[in-house]
Amino acid sequence: MLYYLDSLNVGGSEILALDVCRNARASGIDLTVVTSKGGELEAEFKECAAEFIRIPRRLPIDPGLVRRLRSVILKKDIAIVHAHQAVEAVHAFLASRGTGAKVVLTHHGFVADAKNKLALRFLIPRVERNLFVSEGLREWYTNKAGLDADTRSEVLYNGIDMKRLACVGPSFRAEIGISSHAILFGMIANFYNAPRKDQKTLCEAFAELAAVRSDCHLLLVGSTEDGAEERFAECVKIANDNGLTGRVHFLGRRKDVPAIIDSLDVFVLSSLHEGLGIAAIEAMLQGIPCILSDIAPLREVSGDGQAAEMFRPGDAHGLAESMRRLCDDRPRRTELGERGHVYAKDHFRIEMHLAGLVKIYNETQSA
Hints:
Rossmann fold, six-stranded parallel beta sheet, 16% strand
């Protein structure tokens, strides 16, 4: 099997691919990783891949990359090429033509622009298998994006390697000077230019809560995508305007996310659109109670709201009320954390994802 990943920066699809790579051998998968740009996770991929190959991409559609990728497919007798983005799948499709290798494409989330929609319209009927990370995402493709989500498609939930979530060392709170008695809320999400995450609503909700509770802090973890500077600035302004500069902490991109999640009393994921919601699943697996936007993929993550509190997207007051209730009710926080942990462990472990992946690969090869 071959994974082609355009870049190896920290993101949902890259973390999933890394978790698969680390556990592939135990599932009988011989996995070659090919990347074009490398990135922050490169050293970790090199450690666990059966073979790691770098092939630069110099053009949006690069004939040189196609030729070299095709050479790898033929030399290693690759049966399946797995891609996670449209740009990867285009090159994988072109490189695999006439080789006998079949292309699997995982669809992870929001399709942001016309270029990617055009590429997906070409790819979906031509790749051997389309995998969607949630039923909600598959429905969004059909109902909102106008894309075919029925051809050769099925849902395969992402899986999390629980070993990656193990925390060692001192408490994260000490690093930023937050008392162990404070109620700490947090959200792990990049600031995107496209309407995907909604940190602004969380900041507005926290400002409302902070007006009546002096013992609360908020962490916002994630980088700011080019073009999303205004979205980030809006959140900073809300904190400044409400005198919360010492209680709202913007941490940027971090590599110690499991340790940060472990320090939280409550995890919040305020979103307008999700493919699945990996950060929420990681928080649930760590036993942290969650408050999630009431959108289809997050309803799937939470067992239709049984394993997390839900609030209407964009409703800052409703979110503030949920946050206040959990502040006031420690037993409820404990119960919700336990319920989320059990649900996530039963549905979203990497072993479950790999079992589904092996089944799909076997069916694809024999089709």
